[in-house]
Specification:
The complex is a heterodimer.
Chain A: E1 11-16, H1 26-41, E2 47-52, E3 55-60, H2 64-71, E4 77-86, H3 90-106, E5 114-122, H4 131-142, E6 149-151, E7 158-164, E8 169-172, E9 176-177, E10 189-193, H5 199-209, E11 213-220, H6 227-241, E12 248-253, H7 255-263, H8 270-289, E13 294-295, H9 308-316, E14 322-323, H10 331-341, H11 344-347, H12 369-376, H13 381-390, E15 393-396
Chain B: E1 4-5, H1 16-22, H2 38-58, E2 65-68, H3 71-85, E3 92-95, H4 101-112, E4 116-119, H5 130-136, E5 141-147, H6 159-169, E6 174-178, H7 190-193, E7 197-201, E8 212-216, H8 242-276, E9 284-286, E10 296-300, H9 306-315, E11 318-319, E12 321-322, H10 335-339, H11 344-347, E13 350-354, H12 361-382
Parallel strand pairs in B: 1-11, 3-4, 3-5, 5-6, 6-7
Antiparallel strand pairs in B: 2-8, 7-8, 9-10, 10-13, 12-13
Helix pairs in contact in B: 1-8, 2-8, 3-4, 8-12
């Protein structure tokens, strides 16, 4: 009996994606990733982290499946494997390899021969055997009569991975994909204009994927629209919050703006003008949050307000770059992503949207900035924005972070 | 003097936080969660919070949680609903040998509907025989249902391993787990167990009676047993028992939060109790050699039947059960205890002491003392 070999997976090996390429910033990225991993796992189980070269080892006190699932929601991770540990000597590694394989074969139908290979990596070059030699040694010792295995280097169904590190060798037979992207927070912060629809939550997720921490703002029109519409947005923000461990939402009462624009004779322009005002308000909230961009779910040509001309009118009112991750997406592509993220079912619940108030029968398709400004001159836009901001309610829907009070 | 309550497996006292959380919904907050006005919206929000609390304890999405009127209804929904939904794929069902009466009754109902129901085989120690179990799973097995913690003995079944082995033989088999006695004591995270369904009861963990839940893995289809409005995603129609559900949510959150501390405490209390009973002649403890929920102690004490002991102990202010409390209405001896190999004489002498979060060292000491006294007294009366 050799001492020190795991009886069950004892850690999760986390592989980074792009961030190994990021040169001088690499340390910042690794720090951010470790912090995000810790934040993602702390609510479910105590963990210890161990940094290795280009890898992170996570030691959870149980709940291995949940840990794997959560890590698959941490941006910057390219893949994860539950790993079994063994001392760095070939006999121990072979014995551990047997255990890993027995466990992997348990879940497979008995009696069928599996195509199999060993794939070793030797991070600790002091280890006596080279990777290829270790592959061969393990394979030769394992593939015996009782294991229905056949070596197939090119098309294996089952890959036994071995990573020989300084202190210990780590073995695995499972490798789950991570979400890729960059660690949330490494690219700063963005404010997403979110509705209860399918698109804007997906846009927020894509901004997170590229390393932005996303704060949310939504517009609500009581008493025309009930509280359940806001609750729906909150539910969506909570789901999105799991991908970054914070979920902050500003709820802006918007009916007074809409009434004023209606009374100013906005008619065909009303949607464009609503959205211009939303962008103005969002820009002010972004300043409070020190967010350096706005994010929207707009996509060219999807609805009347999303022609190139109308997008130009809207963007003109924003004081920050407007990121539109879905700008060239078809609806089906967006839906597929929403399903993967876990927002689709929530977005599909029918609730009215504040943009649907006082809609004209024929909205303008090719708006002009000059006309927008002309209508806006009839009302006191600044006062409306200030009043909306004063009545804005911040909600912290996630486990962390404090909210800033909105003042004008 | 306060009675010593050692019947937590029958029911646990309502937690004060759960009581505080649910009271408003018996008073001013009387809205129907389906109503669109603020009273209704607030009731719906309260249910959503409770769903979130239960979901977080099991590490699932809130929409995976369906509230029911209790453990029995959740078990009916799981066993009948999962088997009926899979009827086209096969008719073979495997049921644990020591299941709670509600699961056994549902299995009998499935047999009447034309399903072929077989038992999960046990080994000589009364534990699941994994090799024999695997051999019994067939390509047309559509459902395996098994308890995580046995309510009469506290024995823990190797559910995660059973699930893996069953799926290696029947990839689409549904695995349903009775977690009523486990929730709040052991980790019941759905993915960790690797199962399709869990059923739970609120009042075993300090929630009110009248609430339970069925938790389903994503993508698992289950046929409703009740038919009506669209509540609970259509899986369990009927106006929600808002107060009970709110109390359930609070109790689940608290129980899960304290779980890590509770288990070692229960172990200590169990050891203390058994230590003090060491002199009880002929005492036998029914427990698992591999995994045991320490809060449940099944003791076989020779001499007077357990029923007699229960009443003698009650006179001394110590409340326990003879076997499972919910079977005390039935005349028949516990089929679960019989299945693990106990003879009828022993079954009549099984005393169940079950500890919970409110159990103190003093309770355990008093209970042990009372047990010893009662034994002496009964022996004297017999001789």
């Amino acid at each position: 009996m050799i001492e020190g070999i795991s009886q069950a997976p004892e850690a999760v090996l986390v592989r980074y994606g792009e961030l190994t390429l990021k040169g001088a910033n690499r340390l910042d990225f690794e720090n951010a990733l470790a912090r995000n991993v810790r934040r993602a796992l702390e609510p479910i189980v105590p963990v210890r982290l161990q940094r290795e070269h280009a890898r992170l080892l996570v030691f959870p006190e149980g709940r291995m499946e949940a840990v794997l699932q959560r890590l698959q929601q941490v941006f910057g991770i390219s893949s994860v494997s539950p790993v079994w540990g063994a001392p760095c000597e070939s006999e121990a590694i072979v014995e551990c390899a047997r255990r890993v394989l027995d466990d992997a074969l348990l879940a497979l139908p008995p009696g069928e021969t599996r195509r199999f290979r060993v794939l070793s990596r030797r991070a600790d070059k002091r280890f006596a055997l080279g990777s290829m030699e270790l592959d061969r040694l393990i394979a030769a010792r394992i593939v015996r009569d009782e294991h229905p295995l056949r070596i197939d280097l090119d098309h294996p169904e089952l890959v036994l991975g071995v990573e020989v590190r300084e202190s210990r060798a780590w073995l695995y037979a499972r490798r789950e994909p991570g979400p890729g992207g960059l660690p949330v927070g490494t690219l700063g912060r963005a404010l997403c204009l979110v509705s209860g629809g399918i698109d804007s939550p997906v846009a927020a997720w894509m901004a997170m994927k590229r390393g932005c921490e996303v704060v949310f703002v939504t517009f609500h029109s009581p008493p025309y629209i009930g509280q359940s519409a806001v609750n729906k947005v909150m539910d969506l923000v909570r789901v999105l919050g799991r991908w970054q461990r914070s979920a902050r939402l500003y709820v802006v009462p918007f009916a007074p703006v809409q009434e004023a624009l209606r009374d100013a004779g906005a008619e065909a322009y009303c949607t464009v003008l609503y959205r211009r005002t939303m962008h103005r308000i969002a820009t002010r909230i972004a300043a409070l949050e020190r967010a350096s961009a706005l994010v929207t779910g707009e996509s060219v040509g999807q609805v009347a307000s999303q022609t190139l001309e109308n997008l130009a009118c809207i963007e003109n009112a924003a004081g920050l770059p407007v990121l539109r991750p879905l700008v060239t997406f078809d609806k089906q592509e967006t839906i597929a992503l929403a399903q993967r993220i876990g927002t689709y079912a929530l977005s599909s619940v029918q609730e009215p949207d504040c943009c649907s108030l006082f809609l004209p029968r024929h909205p303008v398709l090719r708006g002009s900035i000059a006309t927008c400004e002309e209508i806006e001159a009839r009302v006191d836009i600044e006062a409306l924005v200030a009043a909306a901001l004063a009545a804005t309610e911040p909600h912290n829907l996630g486990p962390t972070a404090r909210m800033r009070k909105v003042s004008t | 003097m306060q009675p010593v309550y050692l019947d937590h497996a029958a029911t646990s006292p309502l937690r004060s936080e759960a009581r505080a959380a649910l009271l408003p919904f018996l008073e001013g907050e009387y809205g129907n969660p389906s109503s669109r006005h603020p009273l209704g919206v607030r009731a719906a929000e309260a249910i959503a919070r409770a769903r979130d609390e239960v979901a977080q304890a099991l590490l699932v999405e809130p929409r995976q949680v369906t509230f029911t009127s209790g453990g029995t209804e959740a078990a009916n929904l799981a066993v009948l609903g999962l088997a009926r939904a899979a009827r086209a794929r096969g008719r073979h069902v495997l049921v644990g040998a020591t299941e709670h009466s509600c699961v056994r009754a549902c299995a009998a109902e499935l047999a009447r509907e034309g399903f072929e129901v077989e038992r999960v085989p046990l080994d000589a120690r009364g534990e699941v025989d994994l090799a024999a179990f695997t051999a019994r799973v067939r390509a047309d097995t559509v459902l395996v249902t098994h308890m995580l913690v046995n309510n009469e003995t506290g024995m823990v079944a190797p559910i995660a391993r059973m699930a893996k082995l069953a799926r290696s033989r029947a990839p689409t088999v549904r695995i349903a787990v009775d977690a009523v006695q486990a929730f709040g004591k052991l980790d019941c995270a759905l993915a960790e167990l690797g199962v399709d369904a869990l059923f739970l009861s609120a009042h075993k963990l300090g929630g009110p009676k009248g609430a339970g839940a069925l938790v389903l893995a994503p993508g698992v289809s289950c046929a409703p047993v009740l038919h009506g409005g669209g509540q609970e995603h259509g899986l369990r129609p009927g106006t929600e028992n808002v107060a009970a559900i709110v109390g359930f949510g609070a109790a689940a959150r608290l129980a899960e939060g304290q779980r890590m501390q509770l288990l070692p405490r229960l172990r200590e209390l169990r050891a203390c109790l058994l230590g003090r009973l060491a002199d009880l002649s002929g005492l036998r403890v029914i427990e698992s050699a591999t995994a045991q929920q320490p809060g449940i102690l099944a003791l076989v004490i020779p001499g007077a039947p357990a029923e007699v002991r229960v009443h003698h102990l009650a006179q001394r202010g110590v409340f326990v059960s003879a076997g499972a409390a919910c079977q005390s209405h039935a005349r028949e001896l516990s089929p679960g205890l019989r299945a693990i190999g106990l003879d009828d004489d022993s079954i009549r002498r099984v005393l169940r002491l079950s500890l919970g979060p409110t159990t103190t060292l003093e309770d355990v000491v008093r209970a042990a003392q009372a047990l010893l006294e009662v034994s002496c007294e009964l022996e004297r009366a017999a001789s």
